[in-house]
Amino acid sequence: MSLPRHIFRAYDIRGIYGKDLTPEVFLRVGAALAKWSDRFCVCSDTRLSSPPLRLALSAGLLGAGASVMDAGEGPIGLAIYLSKHLKYSAGYITASHLPYEWNGLKLYYPGGEPISLDKLNELWRQASGELSWGLSREVRYERVSYLESYAEFLRGLPKESGELRVVVDCGNGATSLIVPKLLRELGYQVVAVNCDVDPMFSVRGSEPTPEATSLPRGPRSEARRRPRSGLRRGWRRG
Protein backbone atom coordinates (compact mmCIF):
# COMPACT_ATOMS: atom_id res chain seq x y z
CA MET A 1 0.00 0.00 0.00
CA SER A 2 1.56 3.28 -1.10
CA LEU A 3 0.82 6.06 1.36
CA PRO A 4 0.11 9.57 0.01
CA ARG A 5 3.52 11.06 -0.69
CA HIS A 6 2.46 14.68 -0.24
CA ILE A 7 1.55 14.28 3.45
CA PHE A 8 5.21 13.54 4.30
CA ARG A 9 6.55 17.09 4.43
CA ALA A 10 9.88 18.69 5.28
CA TYR A 11 9.51 18.47 9.07
CA ASP A 12 6.43 16.37 9.81
CA ILE A 13 3.40 14.52 8.44
CA ARG A 14 0.22 16.56 7.75
CA GLY A 15 -3.05 15.95 5.95
CA ILE A 16 -6.82 16.26 6.14
CA TYR A 17 -8.34 13.66 8.43
CA GLY A 18 -10.50 11.12 6.62
CA LYS A 19 -9.16 12.17 3.22
CA ASP A 20 -5.42 11.62 2.97
CA LEU A 21 -4.70 11.14 6.68
CA THR A 22 -6.47 8.16 8.27
CA PRO A 23 -6.00 5.74 11.18
CA GLU A 24 -4.79 3.18 8.65
CA VAL A 25 -1.98 5.55 7.62
CA PHE A 26 -0.97 5.97 11.27
CA LEU A 27 -1.16 2.21 11.85
CA ARG A 28 1.35 1.66 9.07
CA VAL A 29 3.54 4.56 10.20
CA GLY A 30 3.60 3.10 13.71
CA ALA A 31 4.65 -0.32 12.42
CA ALA A 32 7.48 1.25 10.42
CA LEU A 33 8.63 3.32 13.41
CA ALA A 34 8.84 0.20 15.57
CA LYS A 35 11.89 -0.83 13.53
CA TRP A 36 13.66 2.39 14.52
CA SER A 37 13.09 2.30 18.27
CA ASP A 38 11.79 -0.24 20.78
CA ARG A 39 10.00 2.31 23.00
CA PHE A 40 7.91 5.30 22.08
CA CYS A 41 6.06 8.04 23.89
CA VAL A 42 2.93 9.30 22.11
CA CYS A 43 0.74 12.28 22.96
CA SER A 44 -1.50 14.68 21.09
CA ASP A 45 -3.28 17.99 20.91
CA THR A 46 -7.02 18.30 21.52
CA ARG A 47 -8.42 17.95 17.98
CA LEU A 48 -11.39 15.62 17.50
CA SER A 49 -9.29 13.34 15.28
CA SER A 50 -6.31 13.13 17.65
CA PRO A 51 -7.51 10.25 19.91
CA PRO A 52 -8.19 7.77 17.05
CA LEU A 53 -4.89 8.68 15.40
CA ARG A 54 -3.02 8.31 18.70
CA LEU A 55 -4.52 4.87 19.24
CA ALA A 56 -3.81 3.80 15.65
CA LEU A 57 -0.18 4.91 15.94
CA SER A 58 0.11 3.02 19.25
CA ALA A 59 -1.42 -0.12 17.72
CA GLY A 60 1.07 -0.06 14.87
CA LEU A 61 3.99 0.37 17.23
CA LEU A 62 2.82 -2.40 19.55
CA GLY A 63 1.96 -4.81 16.74
CA ALA A 64 5.42 -4.48 15.24
CA GLY A 65 7.29 -4.86 18.52
CA ALA A 66 7.70 -1.49 20.27
CA SER A 67 6.45 -0.57 23.74
CA VAL A 68 4.25 2.52 24.03
CA MET A 69 3.77 5.09 26.76
CA ASP A 70 0.59 7.03 25.94
CA ALA A 71 0.71 10.42 27.65
CA GLY A 72 -2.71 11.50 26.37
CA GLU A 73 -3.42 15.13 25.56
CA GLY A 74 -1.05 18.02 26.22
CA PRO A 75 0.98 20.78 24.57
CA ILE A 76 3.84 19.94 22.22
CA GLY A 77 6.35 20.85 24.93
CA LEU A 78 5.14 17.80 26.87
CA ALA A 79 6.31 15.45 24.09
CA ILE A 80 9.71 17.13 23.87
CA TYR A 81 10.05 17.14 27.68
CA LEU A 82 9.33 13.40 27.89
CA SER A 83 11.67 12.62 25.01
CA LYS A 84 14.49 14.58 26.66
CA HIS A 85 14.02 13.39 30.22
CA LEU A 86 12.97 9.77 29.66
CA LYS A 87 15.15 9.24 26.56
CA TYR A 88 12.19 7.89 24.58
CA SER A 89 11.48 8.40 20.92
CA ALA A 90 8.36 10.55 20.75
CA GLY A 91 5.45 11.20 18.44
CA TYR A 92 3.20 14.24 18.87
CA ILE A 93 -0.08 14.29 16.96
CA THR A 94 -0.98 17.79 15.80
CA ALA A 95 -1.39 19.98 12.73
CA SER A 96 -0.07 23.05 14.56
CA HIS A 97 -1.79 26.20 13.27
CA LEU A 98 -3.88 24.49 10.56
CA PRO A 99 -7.72 24.29 10.86
CA TYR A 100 -9.41 21.55 12.88
CA GLU A 101 -10.03 19.18 9.95
CA TRP A 102 -6.27 18.78 9.54
CA ASN A 103 -3.97 16.66 11.65
CA GLY A 104 -0.46 15.29 11.54
CA LEU A 105 2.54 13.88 13.34
CA LYS A 106 5.80 15.36 14.62
CA LEU A 107 8.56 12.89 15.50
CA TYR A 108 11.53 13.18 17.84
CA TYR A 109 14.62 11.11 18.53
CA PRO A 110 15.37 10.16 22.15
CA GLY A 111 16.58 13.41 23.67
CA GLY A 112 14.07 15.64 21.90
CA GLU A 113 15.76 16.29 18.54
CA PRO A 114 13.26 16.37 15.63
CA ILE A 115 13.80 13.83 12.85
CA SER A 116 15.22 15.01 9.55
CA LEU A 117 13.72 15.25 6.05
CA ASP A 118 15.80 12.25 4.96
CA LYS A 119 14.33 10.20 7.80
CA LEU A 120 10.79 11.25 6.86
CA ASN A 121 11.44 10.15 3.28
CA GLU A 122 12.73 6.82 4.57
CA LEU A 123 9.67 6.50 6.82
CA TRP A 124 7.35 7.00 3.84
CA ARG A 125 9.12 4.25 1.89
CA GLN A 126 9.03 1.80 4.79
CA ALA A 127 5.42 2.53 5.76
CA SER A 128 4.34 2.13 2.12
CA GLY A 129 6.09 -1.22 1.74
CA GLU A 130 5.61 -4.66 3.21
CA LEU A 131 5.41 -4.46 6.98
CA SER A 132 6.67 -6.96 9.51
CA TRP A 133 4.04 -7.76 12.13
CA GLY A 134 6.02 -9.81 14.58
CA LEU A 135 7.06 -9.74 18.23
CA SER A 136 10.60 -10.69 19.20
CA ARG A 137 10.30 -9.21 22.69
CA GLU A 138 7.69 -8.41 25.30
CA VAL A 139 5.89 -5.12 24.62
CA ARG A 140 3.98 -2.90 27.01
CA TYR A 141 1.31 -0.25 26.66
CA GLU A 142 1.02 2.29 29.49
CA ARG A 143 -1.43 5.17 29.76
CA VAL A 144 0.15 7.76 32.06
CA SER A 145 -0.45 11.48 32.56
CA TYR A 146 2.74 13.54 32.83
CA LEU A 147 1.11 16.98 32.78
CA GLU A 148 1.84 17.64 36.45
CA SER A 149 5.43 16.43 36.08
CA TYR A 150 5.86 18.77 33.10
CA ALA A 151 4.31 21.64 35.06
CA GLU A 152 6.72 20.99 37.94
CA PHE A 153 9.62 21.17 35.50
CA LEU A 154 8.34 24.51 34.15
CA ARG A 155 7.92 25.89 37.67
CA GLY A 156 11.63 25.33 38.20
CA LEU A 157 12.68 27.47 35.24
CA PRO A 158 13.94 31.03 35.83
CA LYS A 159 11.11 33.57 35.86
CA GLU A 160 10.67 37.34 36.09
CA SER A 161 10.62 38.71 39.59
CA GLY A 162 7.87 40.97 40.84
CA GLU A 163 4.22 41.18 39.95
CA LEU A 164 3.50 40.87 36.25
CA ARG A 165 0.26 40.88 34.32
CA VAL A 166 0.11 38.23 31.59
CA VAL A 167 -2.58 38.03 28.90
CA VAL A 168 -2.66 34.52 27.40
CA ASP A 169 -4.62 33.35 24.37
CA CYS A 170 -4.41 29.56 24.14
CA GLY A 171 -6.54 29.42 20.99
CA ASN A 172 -8.76 26.80 22.68
CA GLY A 173 -5.97 24.28 22.08
CA ALA A 174 -3.81 21.99 24.20
CA THR A 175 -1.96 24.77 26.02
CA SER A 176 -5.30 25.51 27.73
CA LEU A 177 -4.67 22.38 29.81
CA ILE A 178 -1.65 23.81 31.59
CA VAL A 179 -0.62 27.41 30.83
CA PRO A 180 -3.19 29.60 32.68
CA LYS A 181 -3.09 27.45 35.84
CA LEU A 182 0.71 27.30 35.81
CA LEU A 183 1.14 31.05 35.41
CA ARG A 184 -1.25 31.74 38.30
CA GLU A 185 0.69 29.30 40.48
CA LEU A 186 3.85 31.24 39.62
CA GLY A 187 2.25 34.40 40.98
CA TYR A 188 1.38 36.21 37.76
CA GLN A 189 -1.85 38.11 37.22
CA VAL A 190 -3.45 36.20 34.35
CA VAL A 191 -6.06 37.40 31.88
CA ALA A 192 -7.10 34.20 30.08
CA VAL A 193 -8.61 34.42 26.58
CA ASN A 194 -9.80 31.38 24.59
CA CYS A 195 -8.50 29.03 27.28
CA ASP A 196 -11.31 26.45 27.21
CA VAL A 197 -10.52 23.38 25.10
CA ASP A 198 -12.54 23.41 21.86
CA PRO A 199 -11.70 20.56 19.44
CA MET A 200 -13.42 22.48 16.61
CA PHE A 201 -11.44 25.72 17.20
CA SER A 202 -14.65 27.63 16.61
CA VAL A 203 -13.82 30.90 18.43
CA ARG A 204 -10.94 32.39 16.44
CA GLY A 205 -8.72 31.70 13.45
CA SER A 206 -6.13 28.98 13.77
CA GLU A 207 -3.02 31.18 13.45
CA PRO A 208 -2.10 33.57 16.29
CA THR A 209 -2.08 36.65 14.05
CA PRO A 210 -2.67 40.14 15.51
CA GLU A 211 -6.18 40.09 14.04
CA ALA A 212 -7.04 36.64 15.46
CA THR A 213 -5.66 37.40 18.90
CA SER A 214 -7.08 40.90 19.38
CA LEU A 215 -8.69 41.08 22.81
CA PRO A 216 -12.48 40.91 23.13
CA ARG A 217 -14.03 43.80 25.02
CA GLY A 218 -14.37 41.97 28.38
CA PRO A 219 -10.74 40.77 28.66
CA ARG A 220 -9.52 44.07 27.19
CA SER A 221 -11.26 46.00 29.96
CA GLU A 222 -9.94 43.58 32.58
CA ALA A 223 -6.37 43.97 31.29
CA ARG A 224 -6.62 47.74 31.45
CA ARG A 225 -7.82 47.63 35.05
CA ARG A 226 -4.74 45.69 36.17
CA PRO A 227 -1.97 47.81 37.71
CA ARG A 228 1.02 46.87 35.59
CA SER A 229 1.44 46.19 31.89
CA GLY A 230 3.18 42.93 31.06
CA LEU A 231 3.41 40.06 28.62
CA ARG A 232 0.92 39.11 25.93
CA ARG A 233 1.19 35.61 24.46
CA GLY A 234 -0.87 33.81 21.84
CA TRP A 235 -0.40 30.13 20.96
CA ARG A 236 -0.98 27.93 18.00
CA ARG A 237 -3.03 24.80 18.64
CA GLY A 238 -0.45 22.30 19.87
Automatic annotation (TrEMBL):
Ranges of residues in domain Alpha-D-phosphohexomutase alpha/beta/alpha: 6-127, 145-212
Cofactor annotation: Mg(2+)
Ranges annotated as biased composition (Basic residues): 225-238
InterPro entries recorded: A-D-PHexomutase_a/b/a-I, A-D-PHexomutase_a/b/a-I/II/III, A-D-PHexomutase_a/b/a-II
Keyword tags: Isomerase, Magnesium, Metal-binding, Phosphoprotein
GO molecular function term, any single one: intramolecular phosphotransferase activity
Region of interest called Disordered, as start-end residue ranges on this chain: 202-238
SUPFAM superfamilies: Phosphoglucomutase, first 3 domains
Coiled coil location: none
One GO BP: carbohydrate metabolic process
Presence of the UniProt keyword Metal-binding in the record: yes
Protein family: Belongs to the phosphohexose mutase family.
Protein name: Alpha-D-phosphohexomutase alpha/beta/alpha domain-containing protein
Protein source organism: Thermofilum pendens
